[in-house]
């Protein structure tokens, strides 16, 4: 893996609402620590960072505008010069202008972290891959929640996470680890 100097870190939905207990049991308790490790490296190497914020269309959502859940967690607040994209659906490319921003800046490589693996992370990574971006999803820098499948069978967050990553790997993105990404950053 060779990361270009303008490889862009995309941090999805690290808002206060994602910590709400009503979302249920999650996996990867160290995910935020991994995201912050990557964010620190991106900032030190002056690579681009894009923070994605979800503004829900559903009043019962933890991301409904006008309440604290929609706000970025303090530790993930965008720094001066870092781009901030707002979305209303899981896919960060849908009706946000994100593709145009990346194309105008000549960005070809994306490193995606955030939540939820099976939802906004997967849909954003699928579109990134379909649009031809070289896309990496950091498996230990994402998390999701316990979820029932269409037939009502319960699946643990670990199973949901693994299936979602399996859906992405090799077709839409390369699934990798924080350590692997940091090694690539350090070798430049």
Features:
single chain; 188 residues; alpha/beta; Rossmann fold; six-stranded parallel sheet; two-stranded antiparallel ribbon; 8 strands; 30% helix
Overall description:
There is one protein chain. With 188 residues, the protein is an alpha/beta fold. It has one domain: Isochorismatase-like (Rossmann fold), CATH 3.40.50. 30% of the residues lie in helices and 21% in strands. The strands form 2 sheets. It has a 6-stranded parallel β-sheet, sandwiched between helices. It has a two-stranded antiparallel ribbon with strand order 6-7. The protein is globular and about 45 Å long. The model has no long low-confidence stretch (mean pLDDT 96).
Helix/strand layout:
Elements: E1 8-12, H1 31-44, E2 49-54, E3 83-87, H2 98-104, E4 109-115, H3 117-130, E5 134-143, E6 147-148, E7 154-155, H4 157-168, E8 174-176, H5 178-186
Parallel strand pairs: 1-2, 1-4, 2-3, 4-5, 5-8
Antiparallel strand pairs: 6-7
Helix pairs in contact: 1-5, 3-4
GO molecular function: hydrolase activity
Keywords: Hydrolase
Protein name: Cysteine hydrolase
